[in-house]
Every structure is written in structure tokens, then in C-alpha cells.
Amino acid sequence: MRFQPTIRLRLTLVYGGMFLLAGAVLLTLNFALVRRSLDQRAGAVGVQVGSSFVAPAPDGLDFLQPVTAPGPGQRVFVSDGRPLDQVLATFEAKLRDDALHQLVIQSGLALGLMALASVGLGWGLAGRVLRPIQAMTVTARRLSDTNLHERLAMDGPADELKELADTFDGMLGRLESAFESQRRFVANASHELRTPLAIQRTLVDVALADPDATPEELRSMAASVRVAVDRSERLIDGLLVLARSQQGVGPTATVDLAELAAAAVEQAGPEIAGAGLTVRCDLAPAPVAGNRVLLERLAANLVENAVRHNVAGGWVEVATGAAGGRVRLTVRNGGTPIPPEQVTGLFAPFRRLTPDRVGSSKGQGLGLSIVEAVATAHHGSVRAEAPAAGGLAVTVELAAVGRV
């Protein structure tokens, strides 16, 4: 298995390498400056020869004693016959070379010791810098669907590491919300699917337990089973649409929300007439690039929601339009007042304001959640308002054709 250095080791090597490079450059510059200084001082050591003066030999250099006192303009020779100035020049060069040699040795030793110290300090500094990342790693390994509430809650200056830790905490929050929403969705879906199945089983069991059941009773039972089957089918279709919209838009085409809204109103005509509702439409062109099937479901759900959650003899308003590169579809309806704090919860799957869950004629509580999922998949937004007079107003905004 090939060795894979950790990021801490790589940072330590980088710190040490940078220190060695900087130290080498500094020592090279120092060596050049010292050498230049010594070169500039070359020839400063020597003798002065006047008409009657000879400089005494330095201590330990007795061989430099001149043989005779020189006269004016004469050269000075030492005992072995070499000129004094040549001997002094050689001696000066040797002193210079020895000094530079000692400078290199001592500087190299100092650089080596400091390099070792820098590696140790770099190792400790890298560990301190990476401590928040190690905390994230430990937390990530420990996480499961039962402890997503844990957070790093990192203190310290607002630097890149704190930003990363805060981003990690935000991701955990979104995961916790998603897991909780999934658990709630699965539980509600299981309950909703179990209810019509239980009704069907009960009806069939009752019919089978009565050997004297008449054809009329069997037809009545079959009709009740058919209603339960239709309810299950609508619920499954809603779940499929919701799952599909959460996975993306898919194939797109230019669609006019005004046409889709008009078709939705026409489709809901029997329910509108049965409830005695008044419908007002203001459908201006609202072209958008999107998935036609999903957008049809969005418009139909908004209209069905407004019709079913209304009062007898109430009203429904449907409006479309475009402005500022955005298109909108707004559906308003009358009805009983809705507490403002409950408006946001209407977009949760299977959420209803009334407790009727079994055999409800007002749907399965998926309408607005599908609307929100489809709008989000099209990079749009949806908002709901509850007027004090009662009812609900839902507005969907999407990017117009050519805008994102």
C-alpha cells in the first residue's frame, strides 16, 4: 500500500521547506555581504615605509622582520627573501578565507538547528490550525439519523475555518430537517394508504360473511370499494408527482400559465357548480419554460384547493400575468378565516386545517406541497396569505421565458 501523507504532514513539510529556503537565501545574502566587506578592506594590513621607518612585525610573525632598514623607495624583504607586501597579502587572504569558512560552517549549523525547530513548531501549528477540521471529522463519523441535532458551534475569529464550521452546522441543520420531514412523510403516507385499504378489506369481509347478501348489497359494497380504490389511486398519483417534482423538471417546453389556469378552472367546473361558487378570471399571457405535466398539476392543485376549501356560495379568483422578467399565477378564494401562524404549515405534506383524515372529500393534503415542490423545481417561489376576512391567497412566481 502506497504511503499517503496526511495534510498535517504536508503542511509541516511546507513550513519546514519554506523556512529552509528563506534561511538559505538569508545566509547566502549574508555571506555575500561579509565577503564584499572583507574584499573592500583588503590591503589595509601592511607596513608603512618612510625615509627612516619600518613597521614592527605583528606578534607571532617574527619571520617578517626585515633584514635591514629600507631606504626611501626601497622594497622590504623578509628573512626568506620574499617581499613583505606579498607575504602580508597572502596572510590577509588566508585570514579572509578562514573567516568565510567559519561563517559558512556556523551559519549551516544554525540553519540546521532552526530547521529542526521549525519542523516541530510547524507540526504543532498545523495541528492547531487543523483542529476544527478534526472536530468536523469526528462529528461526521459519529452522526446518524438519531443525533443530527449535534453542532460544532465553533468559537473564534470569523476566518475561513469558522466559516467552514458554520457551513457544516448549516448542512447538519438541513439534513436534520430533511430526515425529520422524510420520517413524517413516510408515517403520514403509510397512514393515508392504510386507511383506504382497511376500508376495502372491511367491506369485502362484511360481504363475504353474509351468505344471504343480495345483489343490491353487493353492488353497494362494490361502489364503496371503488371509492376507496379511487382515493388510493389519487393519493399514489399525488405521491408520484411530488417525488418527480423533487427530482427535477425533466423535459421542458414553452408553456403559458394562463392556458393552464383556464384548463384547470374548466376541469373543476362540476365541483364549482356543485358548490355554487363564483369564479372570476383575469388571465394575461404568462409564458414560462418548464415541464408541462408538472405545471398542469400545479395549476390544477391551486384551483382544486381553492374550490374544495371554500364555503357554499363563495368565490374564487384566478389571475396570471408577467412583469420584470417574472410570471405569476395567483389563486384566491373565500372561506373561513385561517390563523396566520398556520399558513406556512399548509405546504407540508398531508397537512390539513381540519382533523378529517378518513374519507375526506377535500383531498389528501398533498395539493399545496406539490405546488411548492413544482415551483421549487422550476427555480420559482410560492407564498400564501390568509386575509383576515377568510380564505387563502396563493401566488406562484416563475422566471419568464428566456430568464433564469
What does this structure look like?
The protein is of the alpha+beta class and 404 residues long. Among the domains are: 7-129, no CATH class; 252-399, Heat Shock Protein 90, CATH 3.30.565.10. 54% of the residues lie in helices and 11% in strands. It has helices at 7-40, 84-129, 131-142, 160-209, 215-246, 257-267, 269-275, 292-308, 367-377, and strands at 253-256, 278-283, 287-290, 315-323, 326-333, 381-385, 392-399. The strands form 2 sheets. The protein has a 5-stranded mixed β-sheet with strand order 2-4-5-7-6. Strands 1-3 form a two-stranded antiparallel sheet. Strand 6 and strand 7 form a beta hairpin. Helix 4 runs antiparallel to helix 5. The two termini are 49 Å apart. Mean pLDDT is 78; it is low at 44-55 and 355-361.
Notable characteristics:
Heat Shock Protein 90; elongated; 9 helices; alpha+beta; 11% strand; 54% helix; 404 residues
